Amino acid sequence: MTAPSLFDPSSLSRRSLLRAGAVAASAAALGGVIPSVLAAPAPAALKPIRLAWNTGAVCGAPIVVAQKNGFFAKHGLDVEYVNFAGSTEQLLEAIATGKADAGHGMALRWLKPLEQGFDVKIATGVHGGCMRLLTPKAGGVTDIKQLRGKVVGISDLASPAKHFFSILLAKDGIDPNTEVEWRVYPGDLLGVAVDKGEAQAIAHWDPVAYQFLKSGNLVEIASNLSGEYANRVCCVVGVRNTLLRDDKPAVQALVRALLEAQDYSAHNPAEAAKAYQEYAPKASLEDLTAQLSSHTHHHHPQGNDIRREVAQYAEALKSVKVFKPTTDTAKFAERVTTDVFG
Length: 342
Fold this sequence. Notes:
Blueprint: H1 14-29, E1 47-53, H2 61-68, H3 71-74, E2 77-83, H4 88-96, E3 102-106, H5 107-115, E4 120-127, E5 131-136, E6 151-154, H6 160-171, E7 181-184, H7 190-195, E8 201-205, H8 208-214, E9 218-223, E10 235-240, H9 241-246, H10 248-267, H11 269-276, H12 285-294, H13 303-319, H14 329-336
Parallel strand pairs: 1-2, 1-3, 6-7, 6-8
Antiparallel strand pairs: 3-10, 4-10, 5-8, 5-9
Helix pairs in contact: 2-10, 2-11, 10-11, 11-12, 13-14
């Protein structure tokens, strides 16, 4: 990216302009050579940052907005994308070891690996929404309470959708580990599993879940914005701890730029969709806009707020046996989050 010029003529005082004119007049007498002191100062160098994210995730559209709308440059950053579609453990290792400086991902995908001690800190939440629990229209299941004894299709056993809807099931008195069968299918074939009657519900995230919903054969009976989770974060941004220690202003700049882009996307979902569409060429602008509008890109907790939400998730994960019952969730949240502006 090219840095905008930092030379702003409007910032010069009248005295400075008069002095400049006098020097210019003197230079003219010397053959038109203007001393270098009058040249515009060189633009400040932008700080390079490598940001890892899955470019296939439509909820990451604000990252593209931050680049194309100049929010990164505005905050002094030259951001390079690292398209990452590997496992969460690989992503966190890439951040911790300096292959990337920061990364974007789902909180419920990150928390268990972070418990293992990766040198990565969650710097901010970025939005809520994007996970959906779908059932066939003709299947008779219209409420999550009706999933006792049923099969739910998921993409993998560490799926954040499995974790989240296990939490909801537990709140409704259903043991998600013994009273529901979780069956793994490739993400894009989850709809086929339901069509064949092999599963009575599927739990997944956008854009795939949205496309299943749009097919008209499925209905949404819950999402990660249901009930008390309406104002709970889904995706987060984590940063390399050494970057946080060595260059906290760069981390602050990154967070400011990303949150500016989140707010822009919340108020202008169609523009955010247009910015992102090159990463989803088969999706219509209408579909991308609908998905972004259904997410809560205005919800991006930081500091004590993200720490509290992480602790709440960790406590809920204890109830479904993802975290050990002895885990001190307050200490865990303190360890894996950071107050960037504190």
